Amino acid sequence: MDLKTIVCSKSGERIDSYVANSLDELSRSYVQKLIDEGMVKVNDKLVKPNYKVKIDDIITVGIPEPVKLEVKAEDIKLDILYEDDDVIVVNKPQGMVVHPAAGNYTGTLVNALLYHCTNLSGINGVLRPGIVHRIDKDTSGVLVVAKNDMAHRNLAKQIKEHTVNRRYIALVEGVIKTECGTVEGAIGRNPTDRKKMDIVQNGKPAITHFKV
Fold it and tell me: Are the beta carbons of 59 and 41 closer than 8 angstroms?
């Protein structure tokens, strides 16, 4: 197990957010998972994800060693746009799930990647090796996959710092009155339909610029 120690330099931020911002290799959702599993302590005491940090808090984070990959490799053709020793850039087709999950344990991009390359970053766990970012099943587009942990950390850092630009082409229903514009709001899961994202009170800040 890898044990990380953080001396808190600010007050008022949630522990899950503070740890994720302090350790570039960890996503906020993964930090929440570690907290739930009792792997995160503040001043030698277990805390909940909504704990607000204080200056000089001593935060210890236990990061389990990556488990040996057990997801089945499958001979699925990949549209590889670029590849080197650190990353694979693939064009994911519409209809393909990125990684195994309930109801989709085969036929995913990860299954295909494991057949093509057994050396993938283990930071995101057994079911998501190499996966730094995702796009929806019914969305086609480019994904950058990390072959090793160093590449994963660097890519995650760029995404967190918003130095990576993402462009989407979408079909919309209705009449758009302006040729371009900006949509700004806090994005989170729809409270009545968890499969949909919506502008919600406690969502993550998001800015989308669009052009018709």
Answer: yes
Tell me, yes or no, if 136 is annotated catalytic: yes
Same-domain pairing of 152 and 196: no
Please state, in angstroms and rounded to a whole number, the distance separating the CA atoms of residues 181 and 15.
35
Whether the Cβ atoms of residue 122 and residue 66 lie closer than 8 Å to each other: yes
Asked whether residue 58 falls in the same domain as residue 84, the answer is no
Task: Report yes or no on 207 lying in a domain.
Answer: yes
Annotated active-site residue in 57, 79, 136, 149: 136
How confident is the model over 85-119, as pLDDT tens digits?
999 999 999 999 999 876 678 899 999 999 998 78
Instruction: Look up the CATH number of the domain holding residue 58.
Output: 3.10.290.10
Residues in Cβ contact with 14 at an 8 Å cutoff, skipping those fewer than 6 apart: 49, 50, 51, 52, 53
Half-sphere exposure of 18 (CA within 13 A, CB side): 28
Domain that holds residue 189: 180-211
